[in-house]
Amino acid sequence: MPELVFFSGTMDCGKSTLALQIAHNRDARGLQGVIFTRDDRAGEGKLSSRLGLVTEAVEAPEGMDLYAYVVAQLSKGGKADYVIVDEAQFLEPDQIDQLARIVDDLDMDVFAFGITTDFRTKLFPGSQRLIELADRLEQLQVEALCWCGARATHNARTVGGEMVVEGAQVVVGDVNRPAEEIGYEVLCRRHHRRRMTSAASRAGSLSPDVLPVASS
Ligand SMILES: [Zn+2]
């Protein structure tokens, strides 16, 4: 049975690398995929991983009907055996419904990859819809680590080096606030709650009451 699978994790947990690996394994068996992405770090129409691999992809902007796109590919005589979606958290809820329709009406597997929560610890709308609709949820095995060594479960945003917990869910660089000023870091929940990034932990290492250290 074809499935809608949501592979989720924090930033830096190897999602895009796994997406590329799935595409590679299926290509090797003669299967052809449609790869959608949105706002990949390598630019429009690319799926890239932090390990340096990159492949061509279809940019899925707001308002694009993903189901209609795949149907159009097939009716033009194109081959499509499965669908991969990277950065799925950025998709609109309606686009996630279109992915479910691809699975149910076109009998194709759809593998979606994304971050579940944003820097405010709130679900991205696309991820929320995936959790609601997916046949299967997979948490990625390649776990990112907080600077303390614990499993990193939360995404932090920094602006000019300071951790923030308010602001737009998705930031596109503009004149007033260039994107390069904004950084991201993965943290464990404890350090996300304490707003303790790796830089803050170094700066605050003189105040042990902020970060209790068990000494035995
Ligand atoms: Zn930590």
Please describe what this structure looks like.
The protein is of the alpha/beta class. It contains 6 helices and 11 strands. It has helices at residues 15-28, 66-75, 93-106, 125-133, 189-193, 198-203; strands spanning 4-9, 33-37, 46-48, 54-56, 58-59, 82-85, 109-115, 136-139, 154-159, 162-164, 182-187. The strands form 3 sheets. It has a 6-stranded parallel beta sheet with strand order 5-2-6-7-1-8, sandwiched between helices. Strands 10-9-11 form a 3-stranded antiparallel beta sheet. It has a two-stranded antiparallel ribbon with strand order 3-4. Strand 9 and strand 10 (162-164) form a beta hairpin. Helix 2 (66-75) packs parallel to helix 3 and helix 3 runs parallel beside helix 4. It is elongated, with a radius of gyration of 19 Å. The termini are far apart. The structure holds zinc ion (ZN). Residues 146, 148, 150, 187-188, 190-191 line the site of zinc ion (ZN). Residues 146, 148, 150, 187-188, 190-191 line the site of zinc ion.
Quick recap:
With 216 residues, the protein is α/β, with parallel strands linked by helices.
Secondary structure elements and their pairing?
Elements: E1 4-9, H1 15-28, E2 33-37, E3 46-48, E4 54-56, E5 58-59, H2 66-75, E6 82-85, H3 93-106, E7 109-115, H4 125-133, E8 136-139, E9 154-159, E10 162-164, E11 182-187, H5 189-193, H6 198-203
Parallel strand pairs: 1-7, 1-8, 2-5, 2-6, 6-7
Antiparallel strand pairs: 3-4, 9-10, 9-11
Helix pairs in contact: 2-3, 3-4
Zinc ion (ZN) binds next to helix 5.
